[in-house]
Amino acid sequence: MFNTSEMANLSNQDLLLFLSVLVIAMITLFLFKKLLRVSLPYFFIGLVGLIFGLIVGSLVANPLAKLPGNFGRWLPLIANAFVTVSIIDLFIAQTKPIANFFNRISDRLADDRQIQADHCQKIVMDTSVLIDGRIEAIIRTGFINKRIVIPQFVLNELQNIADSKDEIKRARGRKGLDILDNLQHSGRVKIEILDELTLSRESVDSRLVKIAKNLNAPILTVDYNLNKVAKIQNIEVLNINELAQNLKPVLVPGEEVTVKIIQEGKDPGQGVGYLNDGTMIVVEDGLKFMGQEIKCEVVRIFQTVAGKMIFVQIKKTRKRN
Q: Nearest-CA neighbor of 208 among 159, 134, 155?
């Protein structure tokens, strides 16, 4: 059994500890009530508020601890608890605006990434590609599945060609418009008409290069000059002529090939034939076999701007009819 003095000493020594535990219990109950029923952002913000509140509460409580008597003993605890709970409540109240702020930043970054991705998925098409016509077959095979961007001035240029008084130009322009219409309704690629109607004295090629730079997209063309200008300015170029050249069968000297002589060559006695892909075959002493198919042997191959020229000789086992 404790006597009266011991009870008094115990009460004086442990009352502060008891009240401290009580304050901690109240804060804990408050946190459970506020935080455990909400989502993770609220819990996280509330936890930050608790830490910040304890720090600020301690700073407020320190001067109060210097007060005489019971004031210096109880007021720091009360002030600490009040400040901590108030700051926690303030932080939790600001959770939604803070979350919205970070969500807006996240959405903006996502939009920027999407814009960059969209730019990377675009191809700027030149007028020459529509007139050429092979793009329709290429898209049909699935080799191009990106969004095709056609500036309005390209469409205008194509329309002007289709309205030309020259019969050949008019036919080419109408062919290009038909191909564009077929591509739009094929569903294989998305066609985007870029409404770029600014008056400019620059050439169509220069404006195409600027648009390709702005979109960070390659240019699809068969125009030799546009191909050179774009590459000089470090713009990727998809040239259908280069694609066709690279897809042609590779012949090597000594290989046998069958050629039908259809015309006279540049030099005397030469005959000229063509492979199925359009590659020119020059047959030495082949003129005398005009209209006939003969077996030849590849001698040398020349690569020119227009394509490959293959020179062959008639196999010695061949006899003239």
A: 155
Asked whether residue 224 falls in the same domain as residue 259, the answer is no
Q: What is the CATH number of the domain that holds 279?
A: 2.40.50.140
Strand 219-221 relative to strand 191-194: parallel, antiparallel, unpaired?
A: unpaired
Q: Could you count the other beta carbons within 10 Å of the beta carbon of residue 50?
A: 20
Q: Which two tokens stand for residue 61?
A: 């409580």
- Strand pairing partners for 192? 149
Domain containing residue 129: 121-246
Residues shown for the chain: 321
Domain co-membership, 173 together with 275 = no
Count of CB atoms situated within 10 Å of the CB of 26: 13
Start-end of H helices in 187-223: 204-215
| Claim: this prediction has a pTM higher than 0.85 | no
Cβ atoms of 259 and 273 within 8 Å: the answer is yes
Instruction: Report how far residue 191's alpha carbon sits from residue 178's, in angstroms, rounded to the nearest whole number.
Output: 14
Looking up tokens 């939790």 gives 92
Domain boundary among 246, 278, 304: 246
In the chain, % of residues over pLDDT 70: 65
Tokens matching residue 231? 């590459």
Taking phi over 0 as left and psi of -120 to 50 as alpha, with beta for the rest, 41 belongs to alpha
Distance of CA 228 to the CA centre of its chain: 24
pLDDT tens digits, one per residue of 267-296: 889 999 988 777 889 999 898 899 999 999
Q: In what order do the strands lie in the sheet with 237-239?
A: 191-194, 147-151, 122-125, 219-221, 237-239
CA 161 vs CA 17, 202, 223, 313, 315: distances in Å: 94, 19, 16, 44, 48
Cα distances (Å, whole numbers) of residue 165 to 121, 170, 171: 38, 7, 10
- The single-letter DSSP state of residue 281 is E
